[in-house]
């Protein structure tokens, strides 16, 4: 059994932890957020799909972000990516017409 992770291990768990950061004001959202990418694991059934592509884009955006520079814009884009990942996962799970809603 792997050692306990400090910052989460898994797919849904880590996406949830990332989402919590982006519920904060943009200037605070990026501090420590990259730690949740360390053990973010794309499940086998999602490899080679749009979900994996979106997760890789998410990783790049978080890692390349420079705190204090474009915080608001990057945080908004990451929120949209997290919603797209959630919708893509629901679609792959057979949910007809998933939607993040108007007031996310």
Explain what this protein looks like in three dimensions.
The chain is mostly helical and 104 residues long. The chain has helices at residues 12-21, 26-29, 50-64, 71-92. α3 packs antiparallel against α4 (71-92). The termini are far apart. The mean pLDDT is 93.
What would the average pLDDT be, to the nearest integer?
Answer: 93
**Radius of gyration in whole Å, from Cα?**
14 Å
Total DSSP E strands: 0
Helix count equals 4
Q: pLDDT under 50 segments (min length 5)?
A: none
Structural class: mainly alpha
Query: Any idea what the shape is?
Result: globular
Strand content: under 5%
Element pattern in H and E: HHHH
Main attributes of the structure:
single chain, 104 residues, mainly alpha, globular
In short:
The protein is 49% helix and 0% strand. It has 104 residues and is an all-alpha fold. The protein starts with 11 loop residues before the first helix and ends in a 12-residue tail after the last helix.
Helix and strand arrangement:
Layout: H1 12-21, H2 26-29, H3 50-64, H4 71-92
């Amino acid at each position: 059994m792997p050692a306990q992770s400090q910052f989460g291990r898994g797919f849904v768990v880590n996406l949830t932890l990332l989402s919590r950061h982006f519920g904060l004001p943009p200037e605070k959202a990026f501090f420590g957020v990259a730690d949740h990418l360390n053990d973010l694991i794309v499940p086998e059934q999602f490899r080679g799909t749009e979900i994996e592509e979106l997760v890789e884009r998410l990783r790049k955006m978080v890692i390349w972000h420079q705190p204090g520079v474009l915080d608001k814009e990057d945080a908004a884009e990451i929120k949209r990516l997290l919603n797209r990942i959630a919708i893509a996962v629901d679609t792959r799970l057979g949910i007809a017409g998933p939607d993040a809603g108007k007031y996310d």
